[in-house]
Amino acid sequence: MENRHLQRDLVRDQFTRTARVFGDYALASRAAEAERLMRMVGARAEDCAVDLACGSGPLALRLARQVRWICGLDLTPAILNRARGFATNEQLPNLAFAVGDAEALPFADDALDLVVTSYSLHHMPDPARTIGEMARIVRRGGRVGVLDIFVPDDPAVAAMNNRIERIRDCSHTRTLARHEFEAFFSHHGLRILKTHVEAQLRSFDHWMLVAGSNPGDARYQEVRRLLEQSIADDAAWFHPRLVPAGDNGTERELVFENTVLFIAGEKI
After folding, report:
1. In order along the chain (268 residues), what is the average pLDDT of each group of 10 residues?
2. Helix, strand, coil distribution of the chain in percent, nearest 5
3. Where are the beta strands (DSSP E) in the chain?
4. Is residue 220 situated within a structural domain?
5. What is the total count of domains within the chain?
6. Is position 235 within any domain?
C-alpha cells in the first residue's frame, strides 16, 4: 500500500511539473492514435465510456464526438485543468473530468460500455490490477482499449529499456512485454479483438523536454549517454541513431523509436 501511495505522488509530481508542455504535446500529436484506437474498440453513438489516466485528453476529446457520454479520469489536477480547457474550447457537453485512481475506479460493476487508456500502464504500480478494474466496470460485450509502449521478451533488453525510461522519468514503473498485455486481458475475461503495432520516430531532445528535462541536466546527459552507447547493438530496443540536423551536414540529431501496442478486447 505504501508503495502505491508513493507511486501516486511521483505521478502527480511529474505531470504537475509538465502539465503544459507534455499536455500540449500529447493533444497535438496523438489524434491519429486516438482515431485508430476508437475504431478498434468500435466506439458507438450510444456508448457510455471512461478514459483512464486521460492526461490532457487526446483520447477523451476524440471519443466525445462519437459516444453518448465520457468521463476523463486522472490522478493529476493540473493536467486535468488543461483537458477541461480544451474541452470547453471545443464545446463538448457530454465530456466530464474527475480526479480518480485507475486502480480503484469509482464505477459500479458492469456500468459502462467502453473503457480506454493510453500511455498509462507503464506508470502503474500494478498494471494487471488496472486492467482488472477496466474489465470490472464494463458490461458483458463491452470493450476495453489500451495503447502503450512495450518491450521485447529478452530480459536484458527490457531491463536496459526500463532503466533508461526511469532515469528520464522517475514516475515510470515498468514497460510491459506484449505477452503480458495479452495475458492480463485473458486473465480478466477480455477476449482480444484486434491488435496493432506501430513504431514512432522521436527526437531525443523533445522526448526529454516533455519529461521536464533540458540539455545540461544530469538526467538528460545520462539518458543520452546510455542511448548513444546502445546505438551499435540496440541493447535497449530504442533503435537510436544520429541523423543530420542542419544544412551544413556537420550537426547531428539523436533520434530513436518508441514501439507501441494497440490492443482492443471484449468482455465475455
Report:
1. 83 94 93 96 97 95 96 96 90 93 93 98 96 98 98 97 98 98 98 97 97 95 97 97 80 94 98
2. 40, 25, 30
3. 48-52, 69-74, 95-99, 112-118, 138-149, 190-203, 241-244, 252-267
4. no
5. 1
6. no
